[in-house]
């Protein structure tokens, strides 16, 4: 009886193995098992036992120096980002990932972060704003409000009518921008005379005759006007001052006009 059962089971298995679909399934299963065994006992041990090395320190180096140092150690350097406002000079590496001293596999990618130097900011338009709005506009973008000159003018009282640096001038983050604020047309009884186009000597005489005095004299190079010619004045003509008040003058002088640097240095 047992012998007959064993023969029946054998015949059934033989017929099953002769089935094409079963054969294909067994072949695929055998291939998968073989791949798992190869990965588990050959490839994975090779990967795990690969060489491990310390990451060199490239912080403070230039981009080219850092790349060369990492490539010499069989690493793969890659620039991750450039940041402004960091303490290192422009073009220097200020951060690396993974950090120096970390133990990693050979050939690992090392991500580098480069200093872009001081952040450069464009000066906004301040003319027409109040002092408060000007301060907020500057602080919002990383600049500061500098010296505030209160000047009599025909502009509305407490309005900014001039600024130290023109709109769009490039400054470093943290620099200051001075402004001129109108105090109105003045409350005095002496009308400010028109001095533009006059010589410095003649302007001084006219002011003296009006019981006013010459204030700050600012010299500007001009290639078209004679030296010591008044280019501009503050307060403007038509404003009213008291006796003894001063009028600032902008006067021409000889010399060659030099291109203004894009980023003025702080005093």
Structural features:
5 helices, elongated, Trypsin Inhibitor V, Chain A, alpha/beta, single chain, 28% helix, 15 strands, 3 domains, 3-stranded mixed β-sheet, 267 residues, 29% strand, disordered C terminus
What does the main sheet amount to? 3 strands, mixed
Question: Which of globular, elongated, flat, extended, rod-shaped describes the shape?
Answer: elongated
Number of helices: 5
| Number of extended strands | 15
- The Rg value, from CA coordinates, equals 40 Å
Strand order of the largest sheet: 2-5-3
Q: How much of the sequence is in beta strands?
A: 25-35%
Q: What is the helix/strand order?
A: HHEHEEEEEHEEEEEHEEEE
Ranges with pLDDT <50 over ≥5 residues?
A: 257-267
What distance lies between the first and last C-alpha atoms, to the nearest angstrom? 112 Å
What is the CATH third-level topology name of the largest domain?
Trypsin Inhibitor V, Chain A
Give the CATH level 1 class of the largest domain.
Alpha Beta
Second CATH tier, the architecture of the largest domain: 2-Layer Sandwich
Number of domains: 3
Q: How much helix, percentage-wise, in residues?
A: 25-40%
């Amino acid at each position: 009886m047992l012998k007959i059962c064993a023969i029946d089971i054998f015949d059934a298995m033989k017929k099953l193995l002769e089935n094409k679909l079963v054969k294909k399934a067994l072949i695929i299963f055998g291939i998968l098992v073989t791949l798992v065994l190869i990965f588990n006992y050959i490839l994975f041990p090779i990967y795990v036992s690969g060489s491990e090395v310390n990451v060199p320190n490239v912080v403070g180096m230039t981009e080219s120096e850092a790349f060369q140092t990492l490539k010499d150690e069989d690493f793969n350097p890659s620039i991750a980002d450039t940041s402004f406002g960091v303490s290192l000079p422009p073009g220097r590496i200020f951060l690396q990932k993974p950090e120096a001293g970390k133990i990693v596999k050979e050939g690992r990618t090392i991500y580098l972060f480069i200093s872009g130097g001081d952040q450069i900011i464009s000066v906004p338009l301040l003319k027409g704003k109040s002092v408060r709005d000007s301060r907020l506009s500057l602080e919002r973008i990383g600049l500061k409000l500098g010296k505030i000159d209160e000047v009599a003018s025909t502009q509305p009282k407490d309005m900014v009518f001039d600024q130290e640096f023109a709109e769009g001038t490039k400054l470093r983050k943290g620099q200051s921008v001075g402004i001129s604020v109108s105090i109105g047309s003045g409350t005095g009884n002496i009308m400010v005379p028109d001095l533009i186009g006059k010589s410095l000597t003649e302007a001084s005489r006219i002011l003296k005759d009006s019981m006013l005095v010459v204030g700050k004299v600012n010299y500007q190079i001009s290639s078209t006007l004679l030296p010591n010619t008044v280019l501009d004045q503050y307060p403007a003509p038509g404003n009213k001052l008291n006796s003894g008040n001063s009028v600032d003058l902008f006067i021409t002088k000889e010399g060659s006009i030099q291109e203004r640097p894009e980023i003025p240095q702080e005093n």
